[in-house]
Amino acid sequence: MIRRKGLLFLTLMASVLGMPGWGLAQQSQKPVPPPPQPPAPIRFPAFEQKTLPNGLRVVVIEHHEQPAVSLRLLIKAGAIYDPPEKPGVAQATAALLDQGTQTRSAQDIAQAIDFVGGQLNAGAGWDSTFVSAAVTSDHLDLAMELLADIVLHPIFKDEEIERWRKQTLSGLRVQMQDPKFLAAAAFQRLVFGQHPYARPIGGTSTSVRAIRREDMVQFHRAHYRPNTAIIAIVGDVRPTEAFATVEKYLGGWKAAPPLPLPSFSTPERRAPRLLVIDKPDAVQTEIRIGQVGIARTDPDYFVAQVFNAILGGGSGGRLFREIRSRRGLTYGAYSQFAERLQPGYFWINTYTKTESTVEAIDAIFQEIDRIRSESVPADELQARKAYITGAFPLQIETPDGIATQVLDALFYGYGKEYLETYRDRLRAVTAEQVMTFAKTRIHPDRSVIVLVGNAKVFEAELKQKFPTMEKIAYGDLDLLQPDLKRKKDEAIAGPVSDAERARAMAILEATIRVLGGDAFIHQKSQITRGTGTISPPGAAQEIPVPSIVNYTVLPEKMRMEFALPFGTLVQGFNGRIGWMSMAGQVRDQTAQMKESSKYGFQVLRQIHQPGYRVRPLADAEVAGTPALVVAVSDAEGHTTEFFIDPHTHLVLKTRYRVRGQQLEETYAEYQAVDGIQVPHRVTVFQNGVKLFAFSVGEVEINPDIDESLFEKPEG
Q: Quick one: angle between helices 106-115 and 140-152, nearest 10?
C-alpha cells in the first residue's frame, strides 16, 4: 500500500542563502561629508473638503503637474470587525469587490480599466478597507463609475469565492512553513489575548475553509457605510468637477449608524512571558520581543517615532548597529510600532543562527535598558530625527502618495495643519522626552518573547534566564486558540460506547478483508513506480513528474524518488532518521518523518495493537460517493479518519493533521496485485488545495529491498 510519502518536501525545498560580498579596501583618509542642510519647508498642496448628505467626506487636492488623477476611498471596515471565529472575512470581502457586480463580470471590470491604461485595486487592513483607482484625468468619470460599482454592488459569486479560497489556502500553506509568519502570528496572539488584533488578519486554513458567501454579504452590509468613509481625489482636476462626480456616483449610498469598536482589553502581565515554537528543522531562530504599543491618536505619537528611530529604525538604529554590525549575529534587527485605531503592538524583530539565540536576546534587552537609563546624545538624536523627517517629503511626491497621507490624517481625526506641522513636531522631541517615554511606556519586565527555532540547541541555556519558558511543538500550533495549542483530535475525544466501538471495528475489519486480509496485514515491503504531478505552494501551475519510485519496508521505512524537471529529489526515512536530498545537498527531515509516520493508510494495519482506539463518525461523501467514516487514534492521540465505501468496503479517502496542516489523500482505481488491493491513483490535498497526484504503473509486493536505500547520504 502507498505510504504517506513524506509530502512535506514540497514546502521544504532548499532555500538559497546569500553570501556577503567583498568590499573595497578602506582608504587611508575617508572624505568628510558636508553637514546636512536644514530641510526645506513642506508646501502641502491646498485641498478642499465637502461632506455629502449621506455623510461621505470628500477631499479634493489639485495637482496639475501631470494629466493624471488618483482616487482613494477609505472605509471603516477593517479586520478589527471580523467575526471572532472567522478571521479573514474583511480581507475576503475586499478581495471579491472587483470580481463581479450586478451589471459587470470580473472580466468586464478588468477590461474596462485596462482599456484606458488605469488601475483599480482594493484591500483591507486592520482598521479600514481601501478602494483605489488611477487614470488619466480625461477618464475620471469612468474611474469613479467603476469604483462606485464595486463598492456598492458586489455580488460575491460562488465560483469567485472558491477561486479566492483556493488561492488563499495556497498562500497559507506557504506561510505556515515560514518561521517569520509563525513568530509574528504567535506574538500577536500572546500580546492581544482575545482582542481581534490577536487573530491572523488573513485568517487561518480553518477559518478560510469556513467562510461562506453570506459572511461576506453580511460584512459588506454592516460595515460599508458612507458616513464612516472618506474619499480623496488628487490630480489634474478641478474641485467642482470632482465633487460633482463623487456625488453623481456615490451620493445615493445609504448611511446607517456606525458600529462601535470592540472593547480593548489585553492580558495583564507581571513578568516576561517567553514562548518557544519548536521547529526542529529550523536552521536559525526568529525572535520577536515586545508588548502592547500605542494608538494612532496617542499624544506620545511623535515621541514614539523618535524613540523607535533611535532604538531600531533602519540600519542607523542601535539594534542594527549592535547586533548586526558589532556582534555579527544577524543581517538585520529592527523595532516597530503598529499604530491603529486602538493600541497596536510594539516589537523588536530579528533572527539569528540557532547557537546565538540567547546572546541575541541578551543584546536586545541591553539596548532597551540603555535607552531607558541613559540620555540620548545630542548628535545621535539629531541624526535620527533627520532620518525620519527627511523621509516624509518623499511620501507626498505623487498624487497617490498625497491621497494616502491626507486620508490617513483625516481617518484618524487630524487635519491639514497636522500634515504641515508633521516634521516640526518630530524635530521638537527632546532627549528627555525620549527617556521618559522609554521609562513609562516600554516595559521589558512584562514583555512577550516569541522564538521559532530548534529548541533543543538553546533550551537549557534559555531556561536559566527564563525559568517559566513555555514550549509548543510546531505540529501542535493552532493560531486560533488563545493558548496557541491545538486541541486534541475531537474525532477521538470523549467516551466511546461498546456498541460504537464494535460498529467501527466491524467496518474496518471488512475493509481489511477486501484489501487482502492476512496478506495485507502481514505485508513486508512494496515498490511502486509511476508518474504524477506536484503543485508546490505558490506555484502558478502543476509541475509534471515523469517518474516516481516509492520503496517501502513496513512498518516505517520508506524512500521516494521524484524525477523533477530541475533534478531528482529523494526523500527517505529508516525508522529513526529522516532526510531529503537534491543536487548533492542533504537536509534533515527526522522530526517531520517521525510525526507523519503516525498517520495515514498504514494505520489500518495497527488497529488491533495495544493503545489504539476506534470510533464511528458521521457519514459523509467523497466526490459524490457516500462514505462511512471511522476515526482511528493511537495512545498519543494521533488520529486518522478513514472514509470507506459502504458497498465495496474500499478506502476512498484518509484525513489527518500533521504539524498544523490538514492532509487528505483520495484513492481510486484499485487493482489486485498478488492478493492485495492497491489503489493506482492517489491524490493528496493540503488544507483543501491539491498538492500531489500519483498515477501508478507498476507494483511489486514483498520484494527484497536493499535497506541501505533508506540511510541518510553524506552531504
A: 160
Residues facing 643 on adjacent strands = 629, 653
In the predicted model, is pLDDT for residue 152 greater than 60?
A: yes
Q: Using one digit for the tens of pLDDT, what is the confidence trace for 103-134?
A: 999 999 999 999 999 999 999 999 999 999 99
164 in Cβ contact with 96 (< 8 Å): yes
Cell 529513526, residue located: 576
Secondary structure of residue 529 in the 3-state scheme:
strand
Retrieve residue 254's grid coordinates: 445609504
Q: How confident is the model at residue 661 (pLDDT cuts 50, 70, 90)?
A: confident
For the chain, list the domains and their CATH numbers: 47-250 (3.30.830.10), 273-397+412-476 (3.30.830.10), 489-710 (2.50.20.10)
| Side-chain-facing half-sphere of 672: CA atoms under 13 Å | 8
**What's the distance, CA 285 to chain centroid?**
18
Q: Which three cell numbers stand for residue 278?
A: 519548536
CA separation, residue 288 to residues 65, 419, 449, 556 (Å)? 44, 32, 6, 37
Distance CA 423, CA 134 (A): 28
DSSP symbols for 633-661: E-TT--EEEEEE-TTT--EEEEEEEETTE
C-alpha cell belonging to residue 499: 456498541
How many other C-beta atoms can be found within 10 angstroms of the C-beta atom of residue 557? 21
- pLDDT of 525 > 90? The answer is yes
In single-letter form, the type of residue at position 69 comes to V
Separation CA 358–CA 464 (nearest Å): 10
Q: Give the three-state DSSP class for 65.
A: coil
> Mean pLDDT across the stretch 557-568?
92
